[in-house]
Design a protein that fits this description.
This protein has 723 residues and is of the alpha+beta class. Helix content is 31%, strand content 24%. The chain contains 17 helices and 25 strands. Strands 2-1-5-4-3 form a five-stranded antiparallel beta sheet, with helices on both faces. The protein has a five-stranded antiparallel beta sheet with strand order 7-6-10-9-8, with helices on both faces. A five-stranded antiparallel beta sheet has the order 11-20-19-16-17, with helices on one face. Helix 15 runs antiparallel to helix 16.
């Protein structure tokens, strides 16, 4: 039987076996790729010493092997003909875990089943295997899903020579930016030299803070990783626990003898009891009665002075002392990987800073006219970093409410800085009375400027292609004006329960090239009381298994099931938990807004011609309404004077009809006067109008705040009188 599979084979087992072709002779043990019925013959062949096809490839160079498992984790095929694998009892039909030390069985079994369930490979795990004579072989173990899920798994094994072991360990340790997973990978690599391995980190490192030195009396270690995964004696420190202060002090002092980080070895039980002293410290640090010796190696960052991030500990049974060469290897591995721990610390600190910024941007509450609920769910800590998703909601001075959602390109501090700048700029411009499309024009220019090499916020970071959607809700007219820059369309649920995405014209996003730039449209739609508007970012609806349109449809279905009596914040959490992907690689953001609006009896609007009698007619209409509202005399007099001044100003400086609107809010009376003029009223230094009048100073003294907003046909001057 030909031992070399055909190149067209897609099985991971066959692909790895094909890589063995130049080492394993035809007709030898590599023929294990045949039917399961020949397993007895194949198992016998694995004990033979192969003769290489290429004389230059000596037997000691044969370090690669492969084992195929079914879904019950039993061996179905194996290709372990290299001499280094001699003594491994890889018998067809036997459980793969029979090759493992008992203490490693739970952890490896969990990894095997995880690859079966998710289909995601687990690579470069440093693992010990048991030979039949009781000795152990250190390998780099990778778990690969089979081409078809029902075919099980393929486990590739690389026998670890010293230098290859160190290289593979460093590669495995540097694959995660999560500090816990980084410490766990280091502990798993250290397990090749002992029975138990632990990593204890300075508390400041664990929390992502900076560590610049070890001050006297400032010693606090927290256990970050411990392998293997097993039941530990009562009182023993496990991951997440702080070491007792005595134990922390002893370890820190031991590795910093003569004020310089050093590795130390406590060789036997008697020495352990003498050094550790109290039974409480023994219970906390010694993993069991069989553990008799330990090597403690500091995790050190080079510097002046060097900074100790923590301590790595490798424990052995009695009768297995550490040789000098092994200690050298341990120190080299820890020295080469300490910077990975520091990178994870920096990533965690950055993650926390960005997360704090984003949470500060989340809307707190709604108001009398709108109910707001928001959910922000950051990406998993081991991803590229917290993204630039942001959402905000805030009342505008003129009684409207702004709803803003954006997604800045990229992750980390560069994205966070851009996100914060865009969010604050949008709020300032909207509060100044600009329309949504005008605000997006300014944000577009900002993103373009930030991409400039000299004025950019972060070197090598670009925010081009970021998206944003702005919606302004008017609680009087019950309408929403919306503009979008490349963002996914909001979902609107009408009071009768119908739901669907709004028909927003696609846009290339912020900072697009000049040739691709398009004007920002304003989409206006009715949102009667009881309507529900959902703004979100793509992390909520993007799923590799379905189209984006289907994802938006699923969101619309979920939001349509929100009952008008449901607590909105709880409903928002339920929608996110139902739709967010299990393996979340991007931030998830959702903003729900339930429209309430003003009651009909709390607002009144009049349309007057721009004539000299307009101020008198406005005073007459407003006076009658304030009488119905039973407003206090002083508030009534101030409001009438305010309306008179604003209407007079509109008649003098504008053409066309004048609109007067009065709103009774919980905090006061809001008066609005709209006209067709485009001039902006300003207070002058002398206290007069721009043309020498006195109107704006009267307005300024009568009101708690006032301002201007722009419309398609002119402007609206608004002012608020406290009640």
């Amino acid at each position: 039987m030909d031992s070399t599979p055909s190149p067209s084979s897609s099985s991971p087992f066959d692909l790895v076996s094909s890589a063995l072709g130049r080492y394993i002779p035809r007709g030898g043990a590599a023929a294990a790729a045949g039917p399961a019925g020949a397993q007895g013959e194949r198992t016998e062949r694995t004990t033979r010493q192969p003769v290489p096809d290429n004389p230059a490839a000596g037997g000691q160079d044969q370090i690669l092997g492969v084992v195929n498992l079914d879904r019950d984790l039993r061996i179905t095929r194996c290709n372990l003909a290299a001499p280094v694998f001699a003594g491994l009892d890889a018998v067809a039909g036997s459980p793969f875990v029979d090759l493992l030390p008992p203490g490693d069985v739970p952890t490896v079994t969990r990894r095997l089943r995880q690859v079966l369930e998710t289909g995601e490979a687990h690579v470069a795990r440093i693992q010990r295997l048991r030979r039949g004579d009781g000795s152990e072989l250190v390998v780099s173990l990778s778990i690969l899903p089979a081409a078809a899920p029902q075919e099980g798994l393929t486990v590739s094994l690389i026998a670890m020579a010293r230098r290859l072991h160190l290289y593979a360990a460093e590669t495995a340790i540097g694959t995660s930016l999560d500090i816990g997973e980084t410490a766990q990978s280091l502990a798993q690599s250290l397990l090749a030299w002992g029975d138990v391995a632990a990593v204890d980190l300075d508390f400041a490192v664990w929390t992502g803070e900076g560590v610049t030195g070890q001050a006297q009396g400032r010693i606090r270690l927290r256990r970050a990783a411990l392998v293997p995964d097993r039941a530990w004696p009562e009182g023993y420190v496990t991951p997440g626990d702080d070491l007792p202060s005595d134990a922390s002090r002893l370890l820190a002092q031991a590795v910093r003898r003569d004020d310089a980080p050093q590795a130390i070895v406590i060789p036997d039980r008697e020495a352990l009891e003498r050094v550790l002293g109290s039974p409480r410290v023994m219970r906390a640090l010694v993993p069991g009665d069989r553990s008799a010796g330990v090597a403690c190696i500091p995790l050190v960052l080079d510097g002046t002075p060097p900074v100790v991030l923590g301590v790595a500990e490798v424990w052995r049974r009695a009768g297995c002392p550490f040789r000098d060469s092994e200690l050298f290897d341990l120190q080299e591995l820890v020295a080469r990987t300490a910077h990975h721990v520091d990178l994870a610390r920096q990533h965690q600190r950055e993650h926390k800073q960005v997360l704090a910024l984003q949470r500060r941007l989340l809307p707190r509450t709604g108001g009398d006219t709108i109910e707001i609920a928001s959910v922000y769910q950051p990406a998993t800590p081991d991803s590229a970093g917290v993204g630039g998703d942001w959402v905000n909601s805030f009342p505008l001075p003129d009684g409207r409410t702004a709803l803003v959602v954006g997604d800045v390109v990229g992750h980390g501090l560069g994205a966070a800085a851009t996100m914060g700048q865009l969010s604050m700029e949008a709020r300032a411009l909207l509060s100044a009375g600009l329309a949504p499309d005008e605000v997006l024009e300014h944000l577009d220019e900002t993103v373009t400027l930030l991409d400039d090499a000299e004025s950019g916020l972060a070197a090598g970071y670009s925010a081009l292609g970021s998206t944003c959607c702005i919606a302004l809700y008017d609680p009087v007219s019950h309408r929403v004006a919306l503009s979008s820059a490349g963002h996914l369309p909001p979902v609107l649920v009408s009071p009768d329960g119908r739901a669907g995405p709004l028909a927003v014209r696609p846009h290339p996003g912020l900072g697009a090239e000049f040739a691709l730039r398009e004007p920002f449209d304003v989409h206006t739609f009715a949102a009667p009381p009881g309507s529900l508007l959902a703004l979100y970012t793509d992390g909520l609806v993007e799923d590799p298994a379905v189209s984006i349109d289907e994802g938006i449809g699923r969101l619309a279905d979920a939001v349509s099931r929100v009952h008008p009596w449901d607590a909105l914040q709880q409903a928002a959490r339920h929608v996110v938990s139902a739709l967010a992907p299990v393996h979340q690689r991007d931030d998830v953001t959702l903003l729900l807004a339930r429209m309430i609006g003003y009651r009909k009896g709390d607002t009144a609007t009049w349309r007057l011609p721009a004539r000299d009698d307009a101020p008198a007619r406005a005073r007459q209409q407003v006076s009658a309404l304030l009488g119905q509202w039973r407003t206090r005399d002083d508030i009534r007099d101030n409001t009438l004077l305010l309306v008179s001044e604003l209407v007079t100003n509109a008649v003098r400086f504008a053409t066309g009809p004048i609109t007067v609107r009065l709103i009774r809010a919980g905090h006061g009376l809001l008066c609005e006067v709209g006209d067709t003029g485009n001039g902006r009223p300003r207070l002058s230094g002398g206290g007069l109008l721009d043309d020498g009048g006195r109107g704006l100073h009267i307005v300024h003294r009568l009101t708690t705040r006032w301002g201007v907003r722009w419309t398609d046909t002119g402007k609206v001057v608004w002012a608020e009188v406290a009640r």
